[in-house]
Design goal:
This protein is an alpha+beta fold. The chain is 40% helix and 29% strand. The protein contains 13 helices and 21 strands. The strands form 5 sheets. Strands 1, 3, 5, 6, 9, 10 and 11 form a 7-stranded mixed β-sheet that branches. It has a 6-stranded mixed β-sheet with strand order 18-17-14-19-20-21, sandwiched between helices. The protein has a 4-stranded antiparallel β-sheet with strand order 2-4-8-7, with no helix packed on it. The longest helix is centred in the C-terminal third of the chain and has 26 residues, at 382-407. It is elongated, with a radius of gyration of 33 Å. Residues 198-369 form the DUF58 domain.
């Protein structure tokens, strides 16, 4: 509850009138007191008639889980209690966790005399479970002398989880199944190292695939059909240092990395491979040994949802050396990381070179659209020229590091976040087809 602007103007007008009358023609003190008492009585009467917070009931729909980068929608219903109608709501704001925006305004539309509806839309930019504290309303008293500002508890939570929209939409299933089990798979048979089946030899097939012993037993030419080996180990290594907290396209880099990692984990599940998880910052953190993809996916989703936002610098030497000690079998390691310049990337390059001797390494980093805009934008002031020069130098240094990694055999992917999952899937399918693991 607080005084409305009308009450302030009324009080100022009454005081000014009394001062003018007293200065022009002195009046009895009792008359001035009576005027003030009448104003106070009017204010108290208006306050007594005003609707209270207890006269309004708030009903909310259960907030569903929302993916990072999307917007959560929470329906709200305001219902009048008792015989009085619902007051005319002038303003409504939701009190949320600071990570969700703090006080978020929303519109409330009256539906008849006793109900009103509103929709709370919350942009989900960071993973975690956030409380939805309360709904603040504002309405005026009948005479407009007071503004009532009740606080109605929401009593709800919002869970922001990694985005698995490509998995639930079926796009990954279509791509992987068509590549591994469709037309392309038929063309690649005979180039693998794992026995698939025997089939009758026909014109056009490679004569080196003929199994002469079985052909003699069957008294007809029989050829071996091979396919790419399965049950490979794939480890998704997530760098959770402070560089991965920087936002690109509205989300922290680590969230883009998690979304892409879950996409490749689902693809590996369809491909019959084993998937593991490894996270690190200043020191090694969570590790999940490679497991069959379908059973590992729910665990991966839960562990990545609990992964916090670190503010320390990553120690690539310790993290990669520790990961190398955990793996005794040749694996595909997908490392989501970033670096600031060539100096800080020196240790990263050296340790990836050591790890590459036994494993297949895919290094994933993000292209910064803001850096590209500064580099390619039109210069209208000297400051724009300076920013373009600095951006071009940073891009050149990044490319030097990526070139060094490519020369030692590391597969490098640097792309915009929106293009990361398709690029990573194409790289994974190419590695399986070429049997690099």
């Amino acid at each position: 509850m607080r005084p409305a602007r009308r009450l302030l103007w009324l009080s100022a007008a009454v005081l000014a009138l009394i001062l003018i009358v007293v200065a022009a023609a002195p009046i009895p003190t009792g008359a001035a007191v009576a005027v003030l008492a009448a104003v106070v009585a009017l204010c108290l009467a208006d306050l007594a008639m005003a609707a209270r917070a207890s006269s309004v009931r708030l009903e909310t729909g259960p907030p569903a889980e929302v993916f990072t980068g999307e917007t959560a929608t929470l329906p709200l219903l305001l219902v009048a209690r008792g015989g009085a109608g619902l007051p005319r709501i002038l303003d409504a704001r939701a009190e949320l966790d600071p990570a969700l925006g703090g006080l978020v305004p929303l519109s409330v539309t009256a539906e008849g005399r006793r109900t009103a509806r509103g929709t709370l839309r919350i942009p989900a930019r960071r993973r975690g479970t956030y409380p939805l504290h309360a709904l603040w309303l504002r309405w005026q008293s009948p005479l407009g002398l007071w503004e009532m500002t009740p606080r109605l508890p929401l009593g709800a939570e919002l869970r922001v989880i990694p985005n698995i929209r490509p998995v639930t939409s079926g796009r990954i299933d279509t791509l992987v199944r068509s590549d591994l089990y469709g037309v392309k798979d038929t063309a690649l048979r005979g180039e693998g190292s794992e026995f698939h089946q025997l089939r009758e030899f026909t014109t056009g097939m490679d004569s080196r695939t003929i199994d002469w012993k079985r052909s003699a037993r069957h008294r007809s030419l029989v050829a071996k059909e091979m396919r790419a080996e399965r049950n490979h180990q794939i480890v998704l290594a997530l760098d959770n240092g402070y560089l991965m907290r920087a936002e690109v396209d509205g989300l922290p880099r680590i969230d883009h990395a998690i979304n892409a990692a879950l996409g490749i984990a689902w693809a590996a599940a369809l491909g019959g491979d084993l998937v593991g998880l490894y996270s690190f910052d200043a020191e090694p953190r969570a590790y999940m040994p490679p497991q069959p993809g379908r059973s590992a996916f729910p665990i991966l989703r839960a562990q990545t949802a609990r992964l916090g936002y670190s503010s320390v610098e990553s120690n690539h030497t310790l993290a990669l050396a520790h990961l190398g000690g955990l793996l005794s079998r040749r694996s595909l390691i997908v490392i989501f990381s970033d670096f600031a310049d060539t100096t800080t990337a020196e240790l990263l390059v050296e340790n990836l070179a050591v790890l590459h001797r036994m494993h297949v390494i895919v290094f994933v980093s993000f292209r910064d659209p803001g850096l590209e805009r500064r580099q390619d934008g039109r210069a209208r002031a000297p400051q724009d020229v300076a920013e373009a020069v600095v951006a071009a130098e940073m891009a050149r240094e990044r490319q030097l590091v990526l070139d060094r990694l490519a020369r030692i055999g590391v597969i490098c992917i640097e792309t915009a976040p929106a293009e990361l999952t398709p690029r990573l899937l194409a790289t994974y399918l190419d590695i399986k087809a070429r049997e690099l693991i």
